[in-house]
Design goal:
Layout: E1 2-9, E2 14-23, E3 48-56, E4 60-61, E5 70-74
Length: 78
C-alpha cells in the first residue's frame, strides 16, 4: 500500500497519472488514520492540481473502487 498522486493542469486536464508514489512509514489498517507529509514535485510555471489517493501496487487505485481522493490546488508563491 502506498500513497500516490495524479497531476492535472489548472483546467483539470490530466498531465501525469502516476506522478509520484510515497511509501507509508508504518502499516495502516482499515479505519486507521496516519498524519503524513508528502514532498511532491510540481511545475513551477503555472497552477496545477494534485489528486492524492492510496494505491495497492499492481492492483488498483482506491478511487477506482469507490474512495474519494483528496484534491489540492498548487499555486506559485508571489
Amino acid at each position: 500500500m502506498r500513497v500516490g498522486t495524479h497531476l492535472y493542469d489548472a483546467n483539470g486536464i490530466l498531465l501525469d497519472l502516476d506522478h509520484s508514489r510515497h511509501t507509508l512509514p508504518v502499516p495502516v489498517e482499515p479505519g486507521d488514520e496516519l498524519p503524513l507529509t508528502l514532498t511532491v514535485p510540481v511545475p513551477v510555471d503555472s497552477p496545477c492540481q494534485l489528486k492524492i489517493d492510496l494505491v495497492a501496487e499492481g492492483l488498483t487505485w482506491f478511487e477506482n473502487v469507490g474512495a474519494t481522493p483528496a484534491t489540492v490546488t498548487v499555486r506559485r508563491r508571489q
